[in-house]
Amino acid sequence: MMHKGIGQPLAQFTTSTEEDQEWEYTRERVMAILGLWNEYTLSAQRLCERMATETHQTRPS
């Protein structure tokens, strides 16, 4: 039985530094996505409030 990983080129293995950089990159992307989601949510809330004000209806929560 061949051990998993034997026979694979060394370039396929990552070092802990590469893994740390990849994790940081992923974390930065997640934080950017969450930031955009927050902006989207705030824009939607402002739009709903503006529509409610201009149509003289109750404001949504």
Polypeptide structure, described:
With 61 residues, the protein is an all-alpha fold. The protein has one helix and no strands. It is rod-shaped.
Number of strands: 0
SSE order, one letter for each helix or strand: H
Helix content: 55-70%
Shape: rod-shaped
Helical run tally? 1
Strand content: under 5%
Largest sheet features = none
The gyration radius over C-alpha positions equals 24 Å
Spans of at least 5 consecutive residues whose pLDDT stays below 50 are none
- The residue-averaged pLDDT reads 78
Give the terminus-to-terminus CA distance.
Answer: 63 Å
Instruction: Quickly give the structural class.
Output: mainly alpha
Brief descriptors of the model:
61 residues; single chain; mainly alpha
Outline the fold blueprint.
Layout: H1 16-54
Structure at a glance:
With 61 residues, this protein is mostly helical. The chain has 1 helix and no strands. The protein has one helix at 16-54.
